[in-house]
Amino acid sequence: MGVYRDGELVEVVEREGKLSETLPPLFAELLERYDIRSVRFSRGPGSLMSVKLLYIFLKTLAIARGIELYGCESFAFSGGAPIKAVGDLYFVKEDGAIVTKRFPTPPKSAPTLPERLDALECGSDTEPLYHIPAVEV
Questions:
Q1: pTM here?
Q2: Which of 7, 13, 31, 82 is the most buried (most CB within 10 A)?
Q3: Contact 39, 62 (CB under 8 A)
Q4: What's the pLDDT at 132?
């Protein structure tokens, strides 16, 4: 997670563990240290449970604290690299559409944070992007 002031990245915060266990104490800590006015988050594609949990947590926080919420595609944080779906399926963006592709060898990618917020393509649509690959038999 990145903390930005005047559009510039000022702190990177990382936690190991399950999102459901690390997110609440992390935000409690950040809310004590910063006057959070807006949050930009990855609304998918990605792990369905993580996307749901993050959305519900942040939507609740936004309503309770009056924080502006902006949704971004996960590709904004992956540098456009494939994102793990299930098994050897990965989400990729082709011609503006999100599709799944098989990669027998996992592609290398790591989440990245831009140095400036204006580099992120985000919008007011915060509903999760639920992309569930078809089940093959």
A1: 0.86
A2: 82
A3: yes
A4: 63
